[in-house]
Amino acid sequence: MRGNHSVTSASDAPSPTSKPYEWSDLSGLSPDPDKFHDSDYAPTLSEMIRKIVSDEGPIKDTALAQRITKAHGWSRTGAVLRREIEKHFANFDLHEETTGTFVWEKDSKTQLIGFRPAVNKDYRRSVTDIPIAEIADLIDEQPHLLREEDPVNAIARAMGYDRVAAAIRARVAEAIDYFRAHSE
Fold it and tell me: Is the separation of the CB atoms in 116 and 134 below 8 Å?
């Protein structure tokens, strides 16, 4: 089941999400690097963050900061820029996972959230940038993957990873444990 309930069998679960993962288009919000630290620019920055979290959330805080800085034409997200962005997190829920902090829309945290495959390889997220609830949803939708000879590898491939490195293996194993803990 979705929401604040425990995970159930795939037969009880809704059909897989068809919404692929892709980045928000912020061009209509007129990013202005010269005004980034100005107090009168705060509403624009807040709206950019709101749009990204709405379109891409839950999203890892570091990925969110990278989207904001990239929209402003900067290639690096330093501590000063991160602090400015984090000032706007009060309107969101933050959830700590082993790979970092994920930003959720207020009151939207659930045990499962539809797995969002990358629209193409350019949009593929690092496995550490995918919330555990999203990987668990893929397992819920495709429970046969747990019966494979190497379930971790099978799930990673279903996620779109061609090579299953140690970080991917560890995150997927964590998602399997999470799924099993919440399906009882």
Answer: yes
Residue 101: which H helix or E strand, with range? Answer: strand 100-105
The CA distance from 177 to 180, in Å, is 5
Q: State the Cα–Cα distance between residues 108 and 155, nearest whole angstrom.
A: 25
Whole-angstrom Cα distance, residue 92 to residue 103? 6
pLDDT digits (tens, 9 = 90+) for 106-149: 999 988 899 999 888 888 899 999 999 999 999 999 999 999 99
The Cα 63–Cα 1 span in angstroms is: 28
> Can you list the domains of the chain with their CATH numbers?
10-20+110-182 (no CATH), 27-105 (1.10.10)
pLDDT higher than threshold 60 for residue 177: yes
Cα 98 from Cα 57, distance rounded (Å) = 17
Average pLDDT estimate for 48-70: 95
